[in-house]
């Protein structure tokens, strides 16, 4: 090939690459614009925050309420209340007979559910849009007229006891998170799980439950989201009619609890009679969810241990065949986060062998910048997550409530992806050096055998 032809060919390839890059950037911009979620938000006089999202593409509407109460708001001698209320407040109201809640929803073709974390409790209904008023009435009833009596409390105690047995006590590896929390936190309420203590629930009085409801289930501690096929003006009137008369609650006094830094490795072990293969967990305390470094740690988690294409899975499971499974949990929370990596050994490989291999990959991350290819791969994953998170009305409703209540920034539903896009490879290296060190973690050996410890 002569030099002129080579130069022209090289120039053509470069032009083609630049054109492809431009098209990709335009496509990403188009996707971002197409995914933008329009919403209105305002407060009622009683302090209830309202967010409305109109999407008339399909005749579906989600009505949801998120309360700013979770396991971290409980008294350390009365744990499990937040999760217990997730169950209790389906028992009935002054205008809904006991046991009728789910029948009302299903007979009108709807779906409903609730869930609790250490930071918040979330209730929602999904109906066809002609049942919007029904959804609003149900949630206003839950807030204004709950019936909290001994029959309901005793019934739900049995339900929660069974859930504890199924999901924690009798489930393989069911108590690893509980044990990690106990060791990772010494002062903060994150040290106990949302299921709480059955002993605390059993010893609680009816008055204890009524006081919890009176304190936290008030309009000024909640956000109402209505999303889907709605008319804004009509919806606002309905909301004012159903929620406006509910009285404001007392201002909630929240404690700020600061943990001492972890300065040396915390070694712990727990025996689980439900398993045959041991596991190793390495847990690191990380920043609260609104901290920029929390976003960087999200990307580190994806790089190291998210899915079968991650560094640790490919190394330990696919290539070296030292592990049956590798898994990770990057838990972003309101006060602190935690990043936990775990693995199950294959054959004669020890838990320490796996931990050494995990550390080897972390040291690489702390020493060298990740490749441009790996960096782009992570970015692509977060772009996909961004698109998928806003792909359903129910998902949008949840995100709007969560960003408002736990991040104090509703518009993150549209702009959070920009934070991930702005994270650099240098930041990834620096944050790994700051948080992922052996002397800053809990090393939990989760072993077969008769249950030990708390």
TrEMBL record:
The keyword Cytoplasm does not apply. It holds the Pfam family Peptidase_M16_C. Keywords: Hydrolase, Metalloprotease, Protease, Signal, Zinc. It comes from the Bacteria. Residues 50-167 form the Peptidase M16 N-terminal domain. GO terms for biological process: proteolysis. The keyword Glycoprotein does not apply. Residues 1-34 form the signal peptide. InterPro entries: Metalloenz_LuxS/M16, Pept_M16_N, Peptidase_M16, Peptidase_M16_C. Residues 204-381 form the Peptidase M16 C-terminal domain. GO terms for molecular function: metal ion binding; metallopeptidase activity. Coiled coil: none annotated. Belongs to the peptidase M16 family. This is Predicted Zn-dependent peptidase. It comes from Kriegella aquimaris.
């Amino acid at each position: 090939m002569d030099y002129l032809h080579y130069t022209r060919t090289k120039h053509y390839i470069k032009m083609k690459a630049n054109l492809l890059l431009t098209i990709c950037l335009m496509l990403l911009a188009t996707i971002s614009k197409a995914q933008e979620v329009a919403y209105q938000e305002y407060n009622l006089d009683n302090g209830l925050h309202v967010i409305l999202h109109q999407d008339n593409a399909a005749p579906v509407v989600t009505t949801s309420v998120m309360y700013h109460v979770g396991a971290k708001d409980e008294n350390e001698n009365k744990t499990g209340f937040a999760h217990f209320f997730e169950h209790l407040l389906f028992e009935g109201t002054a205008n809904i007979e006991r046991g009728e809640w789910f029948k009302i929803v299903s007979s009108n073709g709807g779906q409903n559910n609730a869930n609790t974390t250490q930071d918040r409790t979330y209730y929602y209904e999904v109906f066809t849009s002609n049942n919007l008023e029904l959804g609003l009435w149900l949630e206003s009833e839950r807030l204004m007229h709950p019936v909290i009596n001994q029959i309901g409390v005793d019934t739900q105690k049995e339900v929660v006891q069974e859930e504890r047995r199924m999901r924690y006590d009798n489930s393989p590896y069911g108590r690893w998170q509980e044990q990690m929390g106990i060791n990772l936190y010494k002062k903060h309420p994150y040290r106990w799980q949302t299921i709480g203590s059955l002993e605390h629930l059993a010893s609680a009085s009816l008055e204890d439950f009524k006081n919890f409801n009176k304190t936290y289930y008030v309009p000024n501690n909640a956000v109402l989201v209505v999303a889907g096929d709605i008319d804004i003006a009509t919806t606002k009137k309905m909301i004012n009619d159903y929620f406006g008369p509910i009285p404001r609650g007392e201002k909630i006094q929240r404690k700020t609890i600061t943990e001492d830094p972890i300065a040396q490795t915390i070694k712990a072990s727990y025996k689980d009679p439900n398993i045959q293969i041991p596991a190793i967990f390495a847990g690191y305390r990380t920043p609260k969810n609104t901290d920029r470094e929390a976003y960087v740690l999200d990307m580190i988690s994806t790089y190291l241990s998210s899915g079968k294409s991650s560094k640790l899975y490919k190394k330990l499971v696919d290539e070296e065949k030292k592990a049956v499974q590798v898994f990770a949990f990057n838990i972003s929370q309101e006060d602190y986060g935690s990043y936990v990596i775990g693995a199950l050994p294959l054959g004669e490989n020890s838990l320490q062998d796996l931990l050494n291999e995990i550390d080897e990959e972390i040291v690489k991350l702390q020493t060298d910048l990740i490749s441009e290819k790996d960096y782009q791969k992570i970015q692509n994953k977060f772009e996909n997550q961004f698109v998928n998170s806003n792909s359903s009305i129910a998902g949008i409703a949840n995100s709007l409530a969560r960003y408002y209540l736990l991040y104090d920034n509703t518009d993150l539903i549209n702009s959070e992806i920009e934070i991930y896009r702005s994270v650099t490879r240098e930041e990834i290296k620096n944050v790994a050096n700051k948080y992922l060190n052996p002397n800053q973690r809990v090393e939990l050996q989760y072993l077969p055998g008769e249950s030990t410890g708390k």
